[in-house]
Design brief:
The complex is a heterodimer of chains A (94) and B (309). By secondary structure, chain A is of the alpha+beta class. Chain A has a four-stranded antiparallel β-sheet, covered by helices on one side. In chain A, a hairpin with an 8-residue loop joins β2 and β3. In chain B, a hairpin with a 5-residue loop joins β1 and β2. Helices cover 37% and strands 16% of the residues of chain B. Chain B starts with 14 loop residues before the first helix and ends with a helix. The chains are: A alpha+beta (94), B alpha/beta (309).
């Protein structure tokens, strides 16, 4: 089973079309392996990006270099998935 | 002992559990609910639709699908709750009883069974189908870019490794083709509601073009009314509009195909994520999500019942 230990989901708020274009380009950088949970659509809408642990530093540096504001939406994806599994197990036992 | 009352609606379930539950629901409501196999998946799993019907022949119908993107688990869970709600309320609740006395409802709970099984076994974040793409190591097609409506345009990807890969040709995915064949052969479906998550939006055609649909005003008004009902329960805020204008250009989508094939009331729901959990919405939000969505669904059902075309 694929694990997501240390992966984060970043909520990015692009300020203008130029920043949106930069964010769209992230998906094309295959080595980063980011997954756009909410794609860059317009400046009024947040963009959620699932970033694997190994790419976190690069992606955050990219955002900061380009002055694109972001916050950490999910701190560690695997923790949430473990909780989800635990709840399912508990429910099955009940 | 199979019993849909002892089933936990506030947790997520595997494909086997859902398919067993479907059999229980059908067994408990034989005069209202039946199970139809409309096809099979790439990996040969059956695709089951629940039919809610009080009789008549080829009545006007409403189609609902959940889980076309397999990782959007809140949608399959909402589908299960909704099916139980329809079965339980018929004959007891006047609005739903009246709706079912005039319309049939088809509900496809696991629209992408291969993807869904894969989210449980191997990769919780899987979105696409599981078909192999010739000449590529990447697996799967986005089944919501695979429909014959603006297929292959710039609002979908040509790259099989992309999450929005449109596939080799329209309806290449057996999961999509099964629905297309069913809807066309039925011929009397008046509304199609395709349920996704997350971001809290109610979208309607078009996604592949900036042009407004001929029924734009009617779709817009009904969306507003449906969302007013939805928000009244827990205050969950939705936005609404055409896919193109509200989010971005998206080609080959379910609702655009449906609309272009005569299904006027075609909508995509993007269910809630009020707590910023994305696709990992905690299970304790399943029932609130389903309850508020139900209010919007009923508004649309009523409108379809009262505005035949």
């Amino acid at each position: 089973q694929k694990l997501f230990v240390g992966d984060q989901v970043l909520r990015v708020t692009a300020k203008n079309e130029e920043q949106l274009t930069l964010l769209r380009g992230l998906e094309g950088m295959e080595h980063l392996q980011v997954d756009l949970w909410r794609s860059p659509a317009k400046a009024s809408l947040p963009v959620d990006i699932h970033v694997p642990f190994h790419s976190l530093q690069s992606v955050k540096a990219f955002l900061e270099y380009n002055d694109i504001p972001y916050s950490i939406m999910l701190e560690d994806l695997q923790l949430l998935l473990d909780q989800e599994q635990e709840e399912m197990k508990r429910s099955r036992m009940l | 002992v199979r019993n849909t009352n002892s089933f936990s609606y506030s947790t997520y379930h595997t494909l086997d559990e859902i398919y067993n539950w479907i059999d229980s629901l059908v067994a408990e409501h034989p005069d209202l609910v039946s199970k139809i196999q409309i096809g099979h998946t790439y990996e040969n799993r059956p695709i089951y639709v629940l039919k809610f019907s009080t009789g008549g022949s080829n009545r006007p119908a409403i189609w609902i699908d959940t889980g076309i993107h397999s990782r959007e688990w809140i949608t399959q869970a909402t589908g299960i709750w909704t099916a139980k709600k329809i079965a339980s309320d018929y004959g007891k609740e006047s609005t739903l009883t009246s709706i079912l006395n005039n319309l049939d409802i088809f509900l496809l709970i696991v629209t992408n069974p291969d993807g869904f099984a894969y989210t449980h076994s191997t990769n919780r974040m899987w979105r696409k189908t599981r078909s192999i793409n010739a000449g590529s190591a990447c697996v799967g097609v986005d089944p919501n870019r695979n429909w014959d409506a603006g297929f292959g345009g710039p609002g979908a990807s040509k790259n099989p490794c992309s999450e929005t890969y449109h596939g080799a040709y329209p309806h290449s995915e057996s999961e999509v083709k099964a629905i297309v064949d069913f809807l066309l052969s039925h011929g009397n479906v008046k509304s199609l509601l395709s349920i996704h998550s997350y971001s809290q939006m109610l979208l309607f055609p078009y996604g592949y073009t900036n042009n407004l649909a001929p029924d734009h005003e009617a779709l817009n008004n009904l969306a507003r009314e449906a969302l007013s009902a939805l928000t009244s329960l827990h205050g969950t805020k939705y936005t609404y509009g055409t896919t193109f204008a509200t989010i971005y250009q998206a080609d080959g989508t379910t609702i655009d195909w449906a609309y272009n094939n005569g299904i006027k009331y075609s909508y995509t729901f993007e269910l809630r994520d009020t707590g910023r959990y994305g696709f990992i919405l905690p299970a304790n939000q399943i029932i609130p999500t389903a309850e508020e969505t139900w209010l919007a669904l009923v508004k649309i059902f009523e409108h379809v019942r009262d505005n035949p075309y």
